[in-house]
Amino acid sequence: MLLNCDPNDREGSMNLVEDLTMNANQVQQQILHEILTQNADTEYLKGFLSSGDHFLRELFKKKVPIVNYEDIKPHIERIANGEPSQIISAQPITELLTSSGTSGGQPKWMPSTAEELDRKTFLYNLLVPVMNQFNVYTSPDETILCPDNKQSMYCQLLCGLIQRDEVLRVGAVFASALLRAIKFMEDHWQELCSNIRTGHVSEWITESSCRNAVLDILRQPNPELADLIEFECKEKSWEEIIKRVWPRTKYIDVIVTGSMAQYIPTLDFYSGGLPLVSTMYASSECYFGINLNPLSEPSSVSYTLLPNMAYFEFLPVNKNQEEEVEGVVPPNLNSAEMNCSKKEDKEAGEEKGEAVDLIQVKPGHYYELIVTTFTGLYRYRVGDILMVTGFHNNAPQFRFVHRQNVVLSIDTDKTNEEDLLRAVTEAKQLLDPLGFLLTEYTSYADTSSIPGHYVLFWELKARRMRRGDLDEQLPEVMEECCSTVEESLDSVYRRCRSKDKSIGPLEIRVVRHGGFDALMDFCVSQGSSVNQYKTPRCVKSGEAIKILDSRVMGRFMSNRTPSWEPYRMGSSKN
Ligand code: AMP
User: Fold this and answer.
1) CA within 20 to 30 Å of 157's CA: 125, 175, 234, 334, which one?
2) What is the CB < 6 Å shell around ligand 1?
3) Strands lying side by side in the sheet with 276-277
């Protein structure tokens, strides 16, 4: 089922969304049927299913195991080494995409086919009418495809500045990438303005197709424009710089859900509070779905999974039960709905911990996403945890909760990405009165001493010129930040720290400006893609820790133990 969507036909596209979501179950059944019949002769499926099995969803679920990357890695490596695609896919594998997820320190490889590109285009085209936007970019293709990242970034910014009056939205896939672009502009605006003023492109732009594409747009000297941009950029504060440089911008097109949520305040600072729009939820494995309410607040963004993109299953996650026990009712749900959904769990197989289908998921429940794709992934664990927030027709909508397995652990504590984000968000507010913004953070579990302790690396940025005497207050505030992070972590952490003494005081190391760029450069040198790069919230590699440590300007420790009380049934979450 490969659908077409004409991005210019708003009504037709919206009808398509209605049809797909209304018939979610039928579409899912049809998708699974197509994937299985098409790939019946692959070595992988033949290992589990016999010829008649392909028509029965129940047999598929019974006989084909749920797998993670380590399970399928040998098959993917064989294909990478030149063996036929037929190992996993009837259609030729045309690309192996590097995912930001890693396996043994290396990026994972995700198979893709020519047809899958059309499926991705379908989803992109759907976004046009949903956003009422034009898919026109100021960056010529040659600048996007330029193999040199620095030249690519410079040229894209230059083209964006030259076409300043036409820019209606500013964006990148992930918030971190957009902020990197702004930082790059902060470092290069004088040179960019000089290029615009003289009509020449800097000599270090040596990639010829990229250079020519820029020259096609630059054409002639434009000192008036250079003056205008220079006037804005030389202001001491870069607050609202996006609005000032591109005054017609209506919104920022950037993903700010999941771990990207920590960038919201910095984006607000640079954009002057323009709407931040997270349009889609996608991965190297598969494009999953879109945000049908693009102007919703970042904290309440939900993605509607499109049932024609892949066959989706959902493994119930314990976290939901934990939260129910602790009396936390998810937003928009009343207790009657919670009880009702529990009764039905049994029929859906959820109570037995089995993977359930798209239309069987329950509002307020947490699940790990599993996909079966047209590209050779069968019952593959994506590693993302989602929470059901509601339905659009018969298709569930999900809040992205976190990516699994990003944890800090010293004793019995297990801190995931979301827990860490919550604690850091709480603590960083203490920096506001000093005029500092937290721009980046990561962490690691330092077990070199006994007991081990959590170490957070923070990069700070001054919002405005600051008085020298404020610096004297910084150590005290940073120590308070350490304690606030600890207070905000979960009860197991606080028990280990306060009662068991199995965790030492939490430490924050403040790194110099550019410390996290150096971390990114390191990750890219190890094979991460620049476009997909997201700051890891936990660094494990000794080399990465060394890179950050060598840029540390100040170390601060928590100077008191966090509060902790034994958990009692019926007590509030703690
Ligand atoms: P990659 O395969 O490297 O492109 O990374 C895909 C992963 O990025 C997904 O599995 C998610 O963990 C994360 N991701 C993608 N889209 C979103 C989104 N809209 N919100 C939060 N996280 C996302």
Assistant:
1) 125
2) 99-100, 255, 257-258, 278, 281-284, 382, 384, 400, 403, 532
3) 169-174, 251-255, 276-277
Residue 108's H or E segment, with its range, is strand 106-113
What is the C-alpha to C-alpha distance for residues 427 and 511, in angstroms, rounded to an integer?
Answer: 17
Calculate ∠ Cα 97-102-105, nearest 5°. Answer: 125
Compute φ and ψ for 382, nearest 5 degrees: -70, -30
Query: What are the residues whose beta carbons fall under 8 Å from the beta carbon of 199, sequence distance 6 or more?
Result: 218, 219, 220, 221, 222
Q: In what order do the strands lie in the sheet with 280-282?
A: 280-282, 287-290, 303-305, 395-403, 380-392, 366-372, 311-316, 356-357
Candidates 253, 245, 288, 272; CA nearest to 172 is 253
- Say what the pLDDT of residue 334 is: 32
For residues 310 and 31, is the Cβ–Cβ distance under 8 A? yes
144: Cβ–Cβ under 8 A, 6 or more apart, which residues? Answer: 137, 152, 156
Secondary structure letter of residue 183 according to DSSP? H
For the chain, the structural domain boundaries read 133-276, 407-557
What gap in Å lies between CA 35 and CA 376, rounded to an integer?
Answer: 9
Which residue's alpha carbon is nearest to atom 20 within ligand 1? 257
Give the tokens for residue 234: 């030389």
Instruction: Specify the 3-state DSSP secondary structure of 130.
Output: helix
Beta-bridged to residue 371, according to DSSP, are: 312, 380
Query: Ligand 1 center to residue 373 CA distance, Å?
Result: 17
Question: 124-162, pLDDT tens digit by residue?
Answer: 888 888 877 687 899 999 999 999 989 999 999 999 999
Residue nearest to atom 8 of ligand 1 (CA): 283
pLDDT tens, position by position, 253-297: 999 998 778 679 889 999 999 999 999 999 999 999 999 999 999
Residue 158 in contact with residue 195, Cβ under 8 Å? yes
- 283 CA from centroid of ligand 1 (Å): 5
Q: What is the DSSP letter of 62?
A: H
Percentage of the chain with pLDDT > 70? 89
Q: How far is the CA of 257 from the centre of ligand 1 (A)?
A: 9
Instruction: Put residue 157 in one of left, alpha, beta given phi > 0 → left and psi -120 to 50 → alpha.
Output: alpha
Going by C-beta distance under 8 Å and a sequence separation of 6 or more, which residues neighbour residue 200?
A: none
